[in-house]
Design brief:
It comes from Streptomyces tardus. It holds the Pfam family MarR. Keywords: DNA-binding, Transcription, Transcription regulation. InterPro entries: HTH_MarR-typ (IPR000835), MarR/SlyA-like (IPR039422), Tscrpt_reg_MarR-type_CS (IPR023187), WH-like_DNA-bd_sf (IPR036388), WH_DNA-bd_sf (IPR036390). The chain has a single domain, classed as Orthogonal Bundle (Arc Repressor Mutant, subunit A), CATH 1.10.10. 63% of the residues lie in helices and 7% in strands. The protein contains six helices and two strands. It starts with a helix and ends in a 14-residue tail after the last helix.
Length: 151
């Protein structure tokens, strides 16, 4: 198979794997009452050193600000986040994770791990480690590209 054919096949395989992972995660998030986008917002909030502004969240997630407003509204109704006034500017609102949100994040992480376990079940532990190493090599800023194993 030529590298052009191989690249096209690989692109199709990666797209299919991504769709299957999203479906598996969605099935596990549904009982928690959280959408994948809301879960992503919670994970983004968790990575922030301090409560961000809505505009900061939009930039971090690479979405339009009105999308963040909808996500925050839904998560606020869920009790997972709260809007808090900024200590230095009355015009600024910060988004904080609540205790309920922290608990929900634990459940979301387990749902995600469960979806990945399901998807990767056909692979041995060694194959899963190899896949992880190959995918890590493709992360932005990674200097080491995967080497060919001659397969």
């Amino acid at each position: 198979m030529s590298s052009v054919d191989s690249s096209g096949r690989l692109a199709d395989q990666l797209a299919d794997l991504t769709r299957r992972l999203h479906r598996a995660q969605r099935r596990r998030l549904e009982p928690l009452g959280v959408t994948p986008a809301q879960a992503r917002l919670l994970r983004t909030l968790e990575r922030c050193g301090s409560p961000p502004r809505m505009a900061d969240l939009a930039a971090l997630m690479d979405v339009v600000p009105r999308a963040i407003t909808s996500l925050v509204d839904a998560l606020e109704q869920h009790g997972a986040v709260r809007r808090a006034p900024d200590a230095t500017s009355r015009r600024v609102t910060r988004i904080e994770i609540t205790e309920e949100g922290t608990g929900l994040l634990r459940q979301l992480r387990e749902a995600r791990r469960s979806a990945v376990r399901e998807l990767l079940a056909p692979l041995s532990g060694a194959e899963q480690e190899e896949l992880s190493a190959l995918l890590s090599a493709l992360e932005p800023g990674t200097a080491n590209a995967p080497t060919s194993s001659g397969r």
